[in-house]
Predict the 3D structure of the following.
Amino acid sequence: MSGAEGIVAAGATHVGRVRAHNEDNHLIDTDNQVFIVADGMGGHAAGEVASAIACKRVHESWIEIAMERHRAAYAAHGDADARRALFQAVREGVMNAHFHIVEQATRDEMKRGMGTTFTGLLVAGGDAVFAHAGDSRAYLLRDGIAIQLSEDHTVLARLRAAGVEETDPGEPARSGSARHRWRGVLTNALGIGDVTRVATFAVPMYSGDRFVLCSDGITEYIGEAELAEIVLKAASPALAANRLVDRAVDLGGGDNATAVVVKVVEAGETVVPPDQRDRDAEAVARCALFEPLSPQERLRALRITTPREIKPGRELSAMALGDRVAYVVLDGEVVLADGEKVGPSGIVYASALVDGTTQVRDTAATSELSRLLVIRRNDFHELAEEESDLGVKLYAVLASIMARD
């Protein structure tokens, strides 16, 4: 089962009280561990065509033999090449759906302007791997709380990133509020424009975890706290999904409402033990490069990192994986040339991530067995280009780190 001993899932959808037809689509494939929610737009039934294309095309791509090989390699090794290949294949599957929607809209005048949001999950190794475009959402429920994993691709989200906030982001938007007016204005979706942005990230799975994929017909009415309460009290994913949809309809039902609930009954063994993953996550959260980022941004940034274990006394090479690299210390200790010691959460060779850097001024070596995250310069720049908002933040943080050095 590719990284989990048992996963159960269920979905529910409702047209709501206002719309004439349901433009949402969802897909559940527990055998292949693929789960999708797509919220179409376009009217004249075109929206439901776009969301159906997204579900069908991505599902076909994600269960191909080639993808199975990528998932198996990721589960077995989790190295830079396996991770890069898997994430690229995941994005390509979504992009193929995007181009197919664009093509269909070009051929049929009645479908001009159709598009869809997309939030999908597939299991690889011990991780849930996500692909996302638009304002449908992915949540993780763990330790009694719900955490929004995806980031809304909306004007409101951009305003919030700029420091403009009308209400508590943990509460649902209500019709008529300023926040509600901007909330549904998408900046990214499948089928809209020649280029779309597919955010990809991975989350380690633990036994008892629940993931919720849902359209904005759910999140318009249900905040994180209530979502967690509904899902955690439900005896099964089926009951949880139905109760989320029923609650959204009861509160107004102004849009189609769709929810898919995925429960990890028992997570399989992984290369990294759970307690070590917790320590690693804490070290990353405290790292100067990642600390200013939101949890969602941190997840997206971490996809370019590769874990590595270095034996005591080994010099850290300024070149690795065919490129200049920086290192984030997860565990252990690194000693710089001037004798300064860098422990967990510290970053070594930060300047290597800057274009034009030809050499690293200092050298560093491990003083004990150390686990590090490796960040290649090319991967850093590629991430910044693909996700410009995140790139601006990362470059600003990097400049601040280098100024202190």
In short: The domain at 274-404 is CATH 2.60.120.10 (Jelly Rolls). Residues 156 and 162 are 10 Å apart (CA to CA). Confidence is low (pLDDT under 50) at residues 175-179. The chain has two domains: 4-153+188-267, 274-404.
